[in-house]
Amino acid sequence: MQLPVVSSSPAPLALLASAASSDGGGPGVPVRVMLLGVRVTAYAIINVAEQQRRGTVGTGAVTNPALLDRLMDLPMGIPVSDPVVWAEMAGQPCGVSERHEDGARVTRRLESPLTVTDVVVDAATGKELRAVQDASLFAGFTRRWISVVSGRIPDAAVLEAKLCGVGIVDQRRRQLVPAEKPKGLTRDGWSWLLEEKTYRRWLTRRAGNHEQESPARATDGASDAGAS
Q1: How far apart are CA 184 and CA 182, in angstroms?
Q2: Which residues contact 33 (CB under 8 A, 6 or more apart)?
Q3: Taking the domains of the chain in order of start, what are their residue ranges?
Q4: Rounded Cα gap, residues 23 and 2, in angstroms
Q5: Which tens digits make up the pLDDT trace of 191-203?
Q6: Do 36 and 119 meet the contact criterion of CB atoms below 8 Å apart?
Q7: What kind and span of H or E run contains 88?
């Protein structure tokens, strides 16, 4: 199927990218990253206040899903009396939480460092349907797109994209098929993990391939590998 360009205006993700500052710290920053085993371009809006706070205390990306899941149970900035959580937070990096001297109260300080507004999966010629299926893995997390080499796409891939709410753009990020906004966003430790992995990659690029990460307790290598 030969798809016409829906509009000469760029897709929403291209508008986000055009607003990014030259040092990669502005809104709509495109980040090439591996998420859920798929190489994507994630368009991220950086939480500048959280990024600066983490920089002050020396904490980078936190990619331990068990820790993130536990933090999701705690309200942000409000002390909670729980001796079990107080013990679990021992040895975690500065800036993750605050353990009070009474041996029971814990205050969560960590929040997500960015918001992923869109993910784009590059589709090789003849692999468009697979790209749609890969993009569909992010349903409930963010808006999803595939980027195609030409406007001629197999009918099955176009139908699947429309059924799944996956948008299609060309190499210039011009919109061929619009993407649907997620109807219900999932917010849990795993969605937070995707944001942290995107943030880790953003830090790497921003620092010129000098990756800033939290100590080993906050970066569970085995769990991280299973989530990628």
Answers
A1: 6
A2: 39, 40, 41, 42, 197, 198, 201
A3: 1-65+111-228
A4: 38
A5: 999 999 999 999 9
A6: no
A7: helix 83-88
Per residue in 145-192, pLDDT tens?
999 997 689 999 999 999 999 999 998 888 999 999 888 788 888 999
Q: In this structure, are residues 148 and 170 in contact, taking their beta carbons and an 8 Å threshold?
A: yes
**Beta strand residue intervals within the chain, DSSP E:** 29-35, 38-46, 80-81, 97-99, 105-108, 114-123, 143-148, 167-169, 175-177
Strand order in the sheet with 167-169: 29-35, 38-46, 114-123, 143-148, 167-169, 175-177
| pLDDT tens digits, one per residue of 35-82 | 999 999 999 999 999 999 999 999 999 999 999 999 999 999 999 999
Q: What DSSP assignment string belongs to 20-57?
A: --TTS-SSSEEEEEEETTEEEEEEEEE-HHHHHHHHHH
Q: Is 104 exposed, middle or buried (0-12, 13-18, 19+ CB in 10 A)?
A: middle
**12 vs 41 pLDDT, higher one:** 41
Tokens 């990619």, located at residue: 63
With 0-12 / 13-18 / 19 or more C-beta atoms within 10 angstroms meaning exposed / middle / buried, residue 221 is exposed
- Tokens 């590059």 correspond to what residue? 122
14 vs 91: CA distance, rounded Å:
42
CA angle 219, 66, 72 (to 5 degrees): 115
Pairing between β-strand 114-123 and β-strand 38-46 as defined by DSSP bridges = antiparallel
